[in-house]
Design a protein that fits this description.
It is a single chain. The chain is mainly α. The chain has helices spanning 2-6, 17-28, 32-45, 48-72, 85-88, 97-113, 116-135, 141-161, 164-171, 177-192, 203-222, 232-259, 264-289. The protein is globular, with a radius of gyration of 20 Å. The termini are far apart. The model has no long low-confidence stretch (mean pLDDT 92).
Length: 294
């Protein structure tokens, strides 16, 4: 059993150039650039409320995963097995964040869509992402199984949080309570973080959520009704142009912070907060200004 959980020698015969391309594609679905592309596009072109809920789920998953990684401090597999070593650097392995977020995010989307095809797609993507971490040699079976179980656990917690009765009670509170919870949670990370580790990186997820909700509140005020979308080819232009603007904004904010001498962490927090505001307010405002959405 010990060998099964930690030995990756069985992966080596499965590798080929074509398979490596496929599983690098699956594993990309668990990295930050993918979320910075997928989440804004979903907000702009799909459903604002759904993707705001999904942002909370992803943030919750990321914080739980990072806390457990620093608590267990379990080393990743031998670098000799790793095909994705540059992106994992010296981070810990248990549990797999890719597996956890894949299970939580894609199964929640399937639940929201409520179509058989959505469940089929979600299961294929989640399974592909989970297996990609084994194929690329950056997690062992124990890491991935733990990530899968925690993904279901995160889903269960989130389902309780968004239950109609809980949401109805939350809506009775002032709208600014959303921001109070996030703002309080950010410094709280330093109080609860285990074994003297610093949650500097993962705190960025909460800053993104703060910017996301601030922008979404302004967006709802500017356009209370669900936007009417243009023809499909204009939607493609919105997606491409909007994402180009997002990455350009991130670069400008990062360069600006560095230019004025801000610490890297502070610069990063400003940039990620700005990205959240851009995704949910600035970009939709530009789309409305250009009459791409009504």
């Amino acid at each position: 059993m010990e060998n099964f959980l930690h030995d990756l020698s069985w992966v080596l015969p499965l590798r080929s150039d074509a398979a490596t391309v496929i599983f690098n594609g699956f594993t990309f679905l668990g990295y930050t650039p993918f979320f910075l592309i997928f989440m804004p596009i979903g907000y702009w072109l799909w459903d604002r409320t759904l993707f705001s809920r999904l942002a909370v789920l992803i943030a919750l998953t990321a914080v739980v995963n990072a806390w457990l990684k620093d608590f267990w401090q379990d080393a990743r597999p031998d670098p000799a097995f790793q095909l994705d070593a540059d992106r994992v650097a010296d981070s810990y392995g248990l549990p797999s964040g890719h597996a956890q977020v894949a299970v939580a995010m894609w199964l929640w989307l399937a639940y929201e869509i409520k179509r058989p095809w959505a469940w089929a797609v979600a299961l294929v993507i989640a399974a592909g992402v989970c297996f990609s971490r084994l194929y690329l040699g950056v997690h062992d079976v124990e890491d991935v199984l733990a990530g899968i179980l925690l993904g279901f656990f995160t889903l269960a917690i989130f389902a309780v949080l968004v239950h109609e009765r809980v949401i109805a009670r939350w809506r009775k509170l002032p709208a600014w309570m959303d921001f109070v919870v996030i703002i309080v949670a950010i410094p709280a990370l330093w109080l609860i973080w285990p074994k003297g580790e610093e949650p500097t990186g993962i705190a960025g997820v909460l800053f993104l959520l703060l910017g996301w909700f601030a922008g979404a509140a302004l967006d709802r005020k500017a356009a209370p009704e669900k936007p009417l979308l243009p023809a499909w080819w204009l939607q493609v232009l919105m997606a491409v142009g909007g994402i180009a603007g997002l990455f350009a904004l991130r670069k400008v904010l990062m360069m600006g912070g560095t230019a004025v001498g801000l610490p890297d962490a502070i610069t990063g927090y400003i940039a990620i907060t700005g990205i959240g505001i851009y995704a949910t307010w600035i970009a939709p405002a530009i789309f409305r200004r250009l009459k791409l959405i009504k």
